[in-house]
Design goal:
Distance between the termini: 22 Å
Number of domains: 2
Radius of gyration: 16 Å
Structural class: alpha+beta
Number of strands: 8
Shape: globular
């Protein structure tokens, strides 16, 4: 977990009680006291849209610099859908695809590439 990451926080004992929050504090006391209440958020079309990804045809694209995109391709192999992130430049793939499951993984990848936070729109 890194500052700026989104996560789900289960407020009570019921799995239905909870909310989505962004980690804004360097105080990890809550995480240490109640680790079972923190849940990673699975990447979804809704989250990709919130981050500003566009889906022209088969993949989701986010412009990170001139002619360079963070691209997420959705693969549904044997009924198990997965996203693969890669960097493309002038329509050429310039990085090995990396499987990403969670919003915080996508946020951390974007931060590593740009030095910026992946903000919701």
């Amino acid at each position: 977990m890194r500052l700026g990451n989104y996560f789900n926080w289960r407020a009570g004992d019921s799995p239905d009680e909870g909310y989505t929050e962004r980690w804004e504090s360097s105080d990890y006391e809550e995480l240490e006291k109640f680790p079972e209440r923190f849940r990673s958020i699975t990447i979804s079309e809704e989250w990709l849209s919130k981050f500003g990804f566009e889906k022209p045809v088969l993949s989701y694209n986010l412009n990170i610099s001139k002619n360079t995109f963070l691209q997420l391709a959705y693969c549904n192999d044997k009924g198990k859908g997965e996203y693969y992130a890669m960097i493309t430049q002038d329509e050429d793939i310039i990085s090995m695809p990396k499987r990403v499951f969670y919003v915080h993984e996508l946020q951390n990848l974007y931060h590593a590439l740009t030095g910026l936070e992946l903000e919701t729109k």
